[in-house]
Design brief:
With 394 residues, the protein is of the alpha/beta class. 42% of the residues lie in helices and 17% in strands. The strands form 3 sheets. The protein has an 8-stranded mixed sheet, sandwiched between helices. Strands 9-10-11 form a 3-stranded parallel sheet, sandwiched between helices. Helix 11 crosses helix 14. The radius of gyration is 21 Å and the shape is globular. The chain starts with 5 loop residues before the first strand and ends with a helix.
């Protein structure tokens, strides 16, 4: 097995300060770890930071961030956003579309001719091209420049885009994968009739000491609270969470608050607004402190390939409450013994009442989750799996 020494990571976005999304956080963290292992890493990304507009806001060029050499390239400004959204709407509705429509959709996705040309010009300098997630044009075209060198980090969900013929052909062309969880790998093998290839790697999570009372003290929170961290949008299930919490408060009379960290507008009933605390982007220390003081971390998304925030919450000593329709999040909670799950509102109410009223249960779940993260998601464990995935023969 030859060692892959020179590696290009290709990712739609890069954030110098903080994170911009789960997949981008993952790619950045993996690239940093590979670079620290002594291998040569170039991180290729776009000049965009906003995942709604994809406007070029970062100056192009190469800069160094910690162990990474990062080169920024402009997003194509002539992409036909109208055509892209029109086809995407039909995909979302699971309406039949032609292969030509699929190719149009991918061509007008987030792309960068400059990045792809740079990669093409320097292809012989790289042993591996690591890219993801799968549904961006930039990842698709980078993967197919030389599939024999590609390692796809798909971040695959059971969603309409996964059923496109263009997606199937991409997965069948690529010889190496880095999956986040076993359910994600199982889904890929089922959808695309793949042989048993690709390794489950995940992402390492750094432990840090936190004071569980610090966040509440800083923000004058005297009531119990639940927490969500990340993007606030329908796909992440945040409207369900706020609706369920308002129903919970009305039905039980319990004054439970909700803390949000991250970005995006919060869709919530007006009556719930006084019980919400939105602190936006915060430092990693404050985020972990907020998690540590919560009754539980709640996650209602059904489309996840790895619940990084669940791992962080478990390290902070907090159990999780997740949507049962998320195969990945439910499997994480089951394997870790670190949380409960709900199918609908009655389940949510029952689970939250149990967590509020049984501190022993909260402690058992949190301690089990923490042990799971320390054993499976320490960077030493993840790095062994990561380097093996990079060095694997096609």
């Amino acid at each position: 097995m030859a060692k892959a020494q020179r590696i290009a990571f290709v990712c739609p976005r890069f954030a110098e300060h903080g994170t911009v999304g789960g997949a981008e956080t993952l790619l950045k963290a993996l690239a940093e770890r590979v670079a620290r292992s002594g291998r040569e890493v170039n991180f290729l990304t776009t000049c965009a930071t906003n995942h709604f507009t994809w406007e070029n806001t970062v100056p192009p060029g190469t800069r160094t961030y910690g162990p990474l050499r990062v080169t920024f390239f402009p997003v194509n400004e002539d992409r036909d956003v109208g055509a892209f959204l029109s086809i995407q709407h039909r995909i979302d509705k699971r309406q039949p579309i032609s292969r030509a429509d699929e190719e149009t959709w991918m061509a007008h996705s987030v792309n960068s001719r400059a990045l792809i040309q740079h990669l093409r010009d320097h292809l012989d300098q790289y042993d591996r091209i690591v890219t993801g997630p799968y549904l961006f044009g930039i990842s698709y075209f980078a993967s197919l420049l030389d599939p024999s060198k590609t390692v796809l980090v798909p971040c695959l969900h059971d969603e309409p885009f996964a059923y496109l013929t263009i997606t199937r052909d991409l997965f069948r062309a690529v010889p190496r994968f880095i999956f986040n969880t076993e359910p994600e790998k199982t889904l890929a093998r089922r959808l695309y009739d793949l042989p048993d290839r690709g390794l489950v790697v995940g992402m390492g999570i750094e432990d840090m000491p936190v004071d569980p009372a610090a966040f509440a003290r800083r923000h004058h929170l005297d009531q119990p609270y639940i927490i969500y961290s990340g993007r606030r949008e329908t796909l992440k299930g945040t409207p369900i969470l706020t609706a369920y919490l308002q129903a919970f408060r009305e039905r039980t009379g319990r004054d439970v608050r909700m803390v949000f960290t991250g970005s995006g507008d919060i869709e919530a009933p007006d009556a719930l607004r006084p019980a919400l605390l939105d602190v936006g982007f915060v430092s990693e220390q404050e985020k972990r402190e907020a998690m540590a003081g919560a009754v539980c971390f709640v996650h209602a998304s059904v489309n996840e390939s790895l619940g990084i925030v669940l791992l962080e919450a478990w390290l902070a000593g907090t159990p999780s409450l997740v949507h049962a329709k998320s195969v990945v999040l439910r499997d994480q909670c089951r394997r870790a013994g670190g949380g409960l799950w709900f199918r609908h509102y009655p389940d949510f109410e029952e689970a939250l009442l149990r967590l509020l009223d049984d501190p022993g249960l909260r402690q058992r779940l949190a301690e089990s989750g923490r042990r799971f993260v320390l054993e499976q998601y320490s960077w030493s464990a993840v790095e062994r799996r990561l380097l093996a995935a990079l060095d694997a023969d096609a």
